[in-house]
Amino acid sequence: MRRILFLVFAAALATASGAYAHHSYAATYDVTHEVTIEGKLVQFVYRNPHSFVHVSTAGEKGVAERWAVEWSGTTQLNNAGVTKESLKVGDLVIIRARPSRVPGEFRALMLNLKRPSDGFTWGSAGQQVD
Amino acid sequence: MHRARTVAATLIAAAAAALAIAPLAAQPPRPVNPPDIAGEWTLSNNEEDTTAQPPLGDYLGIPFNAAGRQRSDTTAESIWGTPEYQCRPHSAPHQWRGLGGARILKEQDPLTRDVKAYHIQFMRSLDWPVFMDRRPHPPAWAPHTWTGFSTGEWIGNTLKITTTHLKDGYLKRGGPQTSDLYSMTDYLTRHGDILTIVTSVDDPVYMDEPYVESTTYTIDLNSNVAMETCNGTAFAENGGTDRHHVPHFLPGQNTALTEWLKKDDWIPVEPTRGGANTMYPEYRAGSTAGAKFPASKTAVDAAKSIGEQSPRDGQVHVLPVQGNIYMVVADGVNVTVSMGADGVMLVNTGTASMSDKVLAAVNQLANATVTPPGPNSCFGANCPGAWGWASPYMNAIISSPAPPRPIRYIANTSAAPEHVGGNEKIAAAGFFPRGASFGSAVDGIGRHASIFAHENVQNRLSSASVPAAAQPTDTFFDEFQKLPEYFNGEAVILYSAPAANTDGDSLVYFRHSEVISAGNLLSSISYPVIDVEKGGSVQGVIDGLNKILDLAVAEYRGQGGTWIIPGRGRLSDTADVASYRNMLTIVRDRVKDSIKKGMTLAQVKASRPTMDFDPRFGSTTGPWTTEMFVEAVYKSLQEKK
Question: pTM for the whole thing?
Answer without folding.
Answer: 0.89
